[in-house]
Amino acid sequence: MSFxxxxxxxxxxxxxxxxxxxxxPPNTPEKLFATSKNLLETVQPHICAVKFNRHLILPLGLxxxxxxxxxxxxxxxxxxxxxxxxxxxxxTNRIIAEHYFQAGFDAVIANPFVGWEEGLHxxxxxxxxxxxxxxxxxxxxxxGAWEGYGQNVVTKKTGKSLRQxxxxxxxxxxxxxxxxxxxxxxxxxxxxxxxxxxxxxxxxSPGIGAQGGNIEAAVRSGSTYFIVGRAITQAENPSxxxxxxxxxxxxxxxxxxxxV
Length: 260
Ligand code: BMP
What we know:
The protein is an alpha/beta fold.
């Protein structure tokens, strides 16, 4: 089963489209590991997948603590995503992807700015060989995202002027990406990009809560998966916070107009 279908099955099974960003503030490796393990255990009934970032990879090590957390997630039937934003030459990109896949990650996030040939082609090739997924950044959630993702570009093929994010959405379709990251902080961009990507490339939206994005607006605009970090991991009651996000998203999905 492809990563995209594994995500659909996990969401269906958990009755949740919430992806936990397992991000914690710096601490000793021992404390980070223990807190992550507990968090994952208490929050897992409300999520469909877990996204890891450098917050844990750097202090815990990929094949040490992180691999144990990956096994824990897998035991709960939760796919895992490595948010490594791959962004180098092809040979390096392939090695990065291979390491994360060998450790047990089900998907990696990559940056389409580097292009296909000797860029992301080797990553998609490796993912195909190992039956894993690749999710592309299409419009990030932070304030300065417009400087890169929002700039006007003239495409080589048609000479037409487009926004960088529109070009990236076309690439996500052409390259067979398993998902596209579009910030929940820009619901109008989600709407626009959903009309290009349709359901072929599901939208993953980070930026909910701590960055000001709203989960209902992301649902209404066409996002499929909702990535939440600090608003859960640093909440007084992480399980309750996750449950609240899950319920809000499910309610908004039920009331979503059919044109989205
Ligand atoms: P938080 O909910 O705490 O803001 O965390 C969001 C997570 O998603 C972080 O791991 C961040 O690096 C990641 N992320 C993001 O916030 N915006 C993007 O456009 C892409 C991301 O991967």
